[in-house]
Amino acid sequence: MKTSPFDLSGRTALITGSIRGIGFAFAQGLAEAGARVILNGRNEESLAAAVTRLTDLGHAAEGSLFDVVDEAAVAAAFSALDERGIAVDILINNAGIQFRKPMVDLALADWQRVIDTNLTGAFIVAREAARRMIARGTGGKIINIGSLTSEAARATVAPYTAAKGGIKMLTRAMAAEWARFDIQANAIGPGYIATDMNAALIQDAAFDAWVKNSNPAQRWGQPEELTGTAVYLASSASNYVNGQIIYVDGGWLAVL
Ligand code: GCO
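# D-gluconic acid complex -> structure
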């Protein structure tokens, strides 16, 4: 029986920022498709709890504690996996933060924190993963997480917008350098997804109405509505797809 091109059995996936929200949904989706998953976060307890949620469902899951902005900690995390003979075949660069303030009032430290986590962190983790994929000669998958703000801006979220715009082009730079090693680098652009990060926006009646009136699906998306695209980009079904960003946004960017 021919195995499905979407089958991830025998693959190992690392998902950064996967304790909750869309990161956790990505991890659960890839685990359901057969992958062993490595969750990541910065808080030991909540990371362990997230791992237990998946192992309780019978999935092969474990945790790797590091902050994506900490270059030494990221390198140490990968070395620890090397020592245990664990090869990361699939990387989802999902770790991200949001900070909302008009630019004229924005402190450089807040700007830097968002850029470091949402853009530089993706570079730091992908570099470690790609070095090993190239050395093993086994290829691999890198999936970055963009946003509607990879294409269009909204007031008060300038560092996030700059970082997500950067993620789109960083993904293409990865394709330019790593596709020849059979590494496919692509991105997913979530629309407005009902997560903790957007809780304040959901509770804001005017903002909630704006989201519902601005996308043809007329609703917020759910985290699990992103996982199918992640499984596709993590699987051999996308072996000739490179440097793309797939928007999962209810049609927001497609319709005036
Ligand atoms: C915001 C939101 C957005 C969404 C998403 C949209 O403040 O506008 O947090 O950034 O999370 O990225 O694509």
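# post-check
The first strand starts at residue 12 and ends at 15.
Residues 98, 100, 147-149, 154, 157, 160, 190-192, 197-198 surround D-gluconic acid (CB under 6 Å).
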